Amino acid sequence: MGYGENPDWIIWRIPADEMIDQDFSKSTNPNVRHVRRTDVDILHKMGVTHPGDIDCHNGFLMVPMRGPNGAIIVVFKADDLSYQCYAELPGQKDIGWCAVSPEGNLVSSEDDASTLFLYSVKWDILANQQKLIVQRDGEPIQLKDAKNKPLFLKNIQGGEFYADGPLLYMSCGVSYKVINTDGIHVINTDSWKEVAHSINPERKEFGSFNFSFNNGAVAPDEPQGLTLWNLDNRMAPFITGQLHALVYSWGAGSSNKVTLMHYSFVPSDGAKHGVMLYQHPNYGGDSRYFNTDVGDLDLGSINFDDVTSSIQLIGISSVQLYDGRYFTGPSIKISNNVPDLNSLGWNDLVGSVRLGPNTIGTTPPHPGIRLFEHPNYKGDSRLFEVDVPDLDLGTINFADVASSIQIVGSAKVRVYDGHNYTGGWMEVSQNIPDLRTKKWNDKIGSIKFVR
Predict the structure, then answer these.
(1) Beta partners for 106?
(2) Percent of residues, the chain, with pLDDT higher than 70
(3) pLDDT, tens digit, for every residue of 352-410?
(4) Which of 41, 68, 49 is nearest to 11 (CA)?
(5) By three-state DSSP, how is residue 439 classified?
(6) I need a labelling partner for 20 at 20 to 30 A (CA). Which of 33, 95, 258, 382 fits?
(7) More confident residue, 342 or 199
(8) CA nearest to 116, candidates 198, 17, 32, 192
(9) 6-39 CB burial, b ≥16 within 10 A, e <16
(10) CB-based contacts of 437: which residues, under 8 Å, 6+ apart?
């Protein structure tokens, strides 16, 4: 993650299992690291600015930046952020992103462009001599839209190659002007032709690939970098999906903020199995894809509670919809696509989803612990599948609140009455309907899984 303009940019290395809504400048985790321009004397003296969308290859971070003579690539070691070297990109003036192709070539572009530059890289020399040698390879690559016409993108901010197919994902857009090519583009790298483009409800566009931002407002939004990383393995708290994209919001004073959006791939050939929930009838508006049971559609990374108006089954026989969280309250079994849930009296009611017993996509529950605000599993709740050192963090806000515990799967967890796994502790491997019986009511401050 890189952020900043002249003179004080900063690049962070944050482990995936950390809650990202926290002040990392105060982190005690030794694996949280950062580097500033002032930490690298040669870059500081050169006046290097504006780190762009980073890519990682062979243990190196390839960071696009603006040097005194134009675009440069600065290289850091990925594990400790130690500076290695830099190289100028011949003939390229601006740069906001770079990406390494599956073949090992470096690809980038000017900020506003309809063509891409391809560079060969001497990776062996970089590894052995800490020296980056890049060379322009061939003529610029022409991007094409769906009609085979030149595709011009304004303010290109991010790009990354898909490892399992000939695809390049790119993001673009400016904060001060609405352009119809703003958003995320998917490019087939065999033909360099666009095969998909995100929609934006802010411009009254509707579809399943919703990348929503408002770049015509007084406090406008601007698309930033993106990455392809499969997080369905529960590595990152409350985050799933394969495509992750940043939007920067320019507020007044110090009210700027960053939003991180997450998307799951749903191939049209039925290779995956699950259910698609849509915001509007006839499969329109925002959507969410699930291939496992979902006990709470109101979780921050899902945010789809009481929203569903149509439903599509993908390679499965049925799905059970519940109007309450955690499969409670009235329910209905759906065995076919439903273009309008209002016809069944179920519009904007779905709170949790359970895939049917014959569903190929169903997986065993991941070990976890759910803390409830009140005894007997009532009130507000939080589900955790990774260690949480501080239940008082802003997005969690559940320290000294829990009054009952529900264990999910085979989890065994230690709960502590202090932050950062300090103070008294209790090991839990079974449900506890009332923590008052254990003298632990409203006391839990951190949790740690016993592996």
Answers:
(1) 100, 119
(2) 89
(3) 898 764 333 334 456 788 898 998 888 778 878 778 888 887 667 889 999 999 887 77
(4) 49
(5) coil
(6) 95
(7) 342
(8) 192
(9) eeebbbebbeeebbbebeeeebeeeebbbbebee
(10) none
Q: What is the pLDDT of residues 201-220, one digit of tens each?
A: 777 776 667 888 887 767 78
3-state secondary structure of 28: coil
Q: Are the CB atoms for 391 and 447 separated by under 8 Å?
A: yes
How many angstroms separate the Cα of 301 from the Cα of each of 252, 297, 411?
26, 9, 22
Which among 182, 254, 253, 169 has a CA at the least distance from the CA of 221? 182
Write the pLDDT tens digit of every residue in 262-272.
Answer: 887 755 443 45
Residue 196 has pLDDT above 70, yes or no: yes
| Residue at token pair 């190929």 | 360
24 DSSP 8-state letter: G
Q: What's the pLDDT at 367?
A: 79
| Burial classification of residue 349, based on how many CB atoms lie within 10 Å of its CB (0-12 exposed, 13-18 middle, 19 or more buried) | buried
Q: Is residue 376 a contact partner of residue 347, using CB atoms and an 8 Å limit?
A: no
pLDDT tens sequence across 317-361: 789 898 888 778 888 999 888 989 999 999 999 998 987 643 333
pTM of the predicted structure, to 2 decimals: 0.64
Q: Which residues contact 180 (CB under 8 A, 6 or more apart)?
A: none
Q: Residues 118, 138: contact at Cβ < 8 Å?
A: yes
Domains present along the chain, CATH in parentheses: 2-263 (2.110.10), 274-355 (2.60.20.10), 368-449 (2.60.20.10)
Spatial CB neighbours of 357, under 8 Å, sequence gap ≥ 6: none
Bridge partner residues of 160 (DSSP)? 169
The DSSP code sequence of 6-21 is TT--EEEE--TTS-SS
Strands (DSSP E) found in 230-351: 243-249, 257-263, 274-280, 284-290, 310-314, 319-322, 331-334
